[in-house]
Amino acid sequence: GAVSTALDFPSPLVVLSPPRSFSSLTSAMLGAHPQSAGLPELQLFMTDHMDPLLKFFALSPGNLQDGLLRSVAQLYFGEQTDATVDQAKGWLAERRHLSTAAMFQLLARKVAPQVLVEKSIATVWRPGFLRRLRQAAPHARYLHLLRHPRGQCSSLVNMIGHREDSVAADLKDHSTDPPTFDPQIAWLQIHQNILRALSDVPAEQVMRVRGEDVLADPERHLTEIVRWAGMRDDAEALDAMLHPERSIFARIGPPSAPYGSDPKFLENPVFRPQQSKPQTLDGPLPWRDDLPGFVPEVLEQARAFGYR
Question: Is 16 strand, coil or helix?
Answer without folding.
Answer: strand
